Amino acid sequence: MAKLELPPLPPPPPFYWGETPEEEYYKSQNVRNNKLYFQTPYGKIFTQSWLPLDETQPIKGVVFMNHGYRNDTSWCFQKICIAYANWGYAVYAADMLGHGRSEGIRAYVGDMEKVATTSLSYFVSVRNSEKYCKLPAFLFGESMGGLVAMLMYLQSEPDTWTGLIFSAPLFVTPEKCTPSKVITLTCYISYFNYITVINLESHIKM
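== 2-acylglycerol O-acyltransferase ==
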C-alpha cells in the first residue's frame, strides 16, 4: 500500500497578524509599543508596554496584564492590551517566569507566590513612577494569570491597586458555594426561549 505523503507545511508567520513589520502594525492599531528586560531577584523577565499613539492624549489609568499558562505577551494576548490602549489606558505586561522570553524552566510554574512576586516587582516599579502614581491602576489576569493577579493583590501594599479585572480566572469554587446541577440546568433552559435561530447559508459571503 502506497504511503500518503503530505506536502510540507509553510513556516508560521513571524507575528500573529502576519508578515507586517511590528512598527508598521502597531501604528496601524494607533498604539506605541516598547519592549525591555527587567531584572528581578528571581531572574530577568521580558516586558512590553502599549500606549496610545497620540502622545498628547491624556492617560485614563494603567492596566497591568497577566497572561495564562504557556502563553506570553507577544502573541494573540496582546490584542487585549492594544484594545485597552485604544481606550486611553497605558498598558504594561510581562512574560511570567518560564514563559515567553523571560528566564526560567519552560512552562514550569512551581511556586505561584514566586511567579507573582517576580512580575509584581516590575509592575510596582511602573505603578509608583511619577508618571502613574496618581492615576487609577488595575491588575488584569487571564486564566492562570487571574490567580497570579489575585496573589499580586494580596502581596501589595494597601491602596496600590484601584481594582482587579479577570478573564476566565483559575479560581476554585468552594464545594459549598457550587450551585446544584439541577438549578444550573434550569437556568440554562430558561435562556432557550430567547435564542434566535438563523439560516447560516444566507449569511455566508462568497
